[in-house]
């Protein structure tokens, strides 16, 4: 589904974010809701050669992988009227042109009680993308994250912010993949005697 097809005859649209969009959507919106989508698991399987890495050293960022038994937590943003086209133009450049993501429509289930499911647009990177990295061990992913930096900052910051979101807004959810990579990264820094990623003052300097 193309963004230009989505905006036809619509005055409201929900956009689901599960990576950097949870803390930095980068577009104006009417309201937001925390919740989840079913049938997908979040994985650090996509490469990034611009925001958190470069052409010489690809960073690791998240995408969604189909899994009927899984669910992924994040934030859905409602954009209305002129915000729709503006947000899609922004995301088309950020996620499609620079990130290599495609768009799909999914059912979003808000965490707030009494709220029914909503249809939302989501951006997903697939294995057909040239910079798609695919699966690796948590230790190898953590090592790659520890060594990469791009135009938006260090790859560690990306991981830390996602961990912070899950622990703050979804404390009841055990995101095994995400937390295992965090643990592996902590072990790397502990073994090296360096600053641990938990020291946010050091890691998030200059964060946007």
From TrEMBL:
This is Gamma-glutamylcyclotransferase. Its EC number is 4.3.2.7. Belongs to the gamma-glutamylcyclotransferase family. ChaC subfamily. GO terms for cellular component: cytoplasm. Keywords: Lyase. Coiled coil: none annotated. It holds the Pfam family ChaC. It catalyses: glutathione = L-cysteinylglycine + 5-oxo-L-proline. It comes from Lates calcarifer. Catalyzes the cleavage of glutathione into 5-oxo-L-proline and a Cys-Gly dipeptide. Acts specifically on glutathione, but not on other gamma-glutamyl peptides. InterPro entries: ChaC, GGCT-like, GGCT-like_sf. It is an enzyme of class 4 (lyase).
């Amino acid at each position: 589904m193309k963004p230009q097809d989505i905006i036809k005859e619509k005055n409201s649209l929900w956009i689901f974010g599960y990576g950097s969009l949870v803390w930095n959507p980068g577009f104006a919106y009417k309201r937001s809701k925390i919740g989840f989508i079913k049938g997908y698991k979040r994985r650090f399987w996509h490469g990034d050669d611009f925001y958190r890495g470069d052409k010489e050293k690809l960073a690791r960022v998240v995408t969604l992988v189909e899994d009927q038994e899984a669910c992924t937590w994040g934030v859905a943003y409602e954009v209305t009227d002129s915000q729709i086209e503006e947000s899609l133009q922004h995301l088309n450049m950020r996620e499609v042109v620079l990130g290599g993501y495609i768009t799909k429509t999914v059912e979003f289930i808000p965490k707030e009680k009494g709220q029914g499911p909503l249809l939302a647009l989501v951006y997903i990177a697939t294995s057909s993308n040239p910079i798609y990295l695919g699966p690796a061990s948590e230790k190898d992913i953590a090592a790659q994250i520890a060594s990469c930096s791009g135009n938006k900052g260090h790859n560690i910051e990306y991981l830390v912010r996602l961990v912070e979101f899950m622990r703050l807004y979804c404390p009841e959810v055990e995101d095994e993949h995400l937390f295992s990579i965090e643990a592996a990264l902590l072990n790397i820094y502990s073994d090296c005697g360096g600053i641990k990623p938990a020291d946010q003052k050091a890691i998030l300097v200059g964060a946007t």
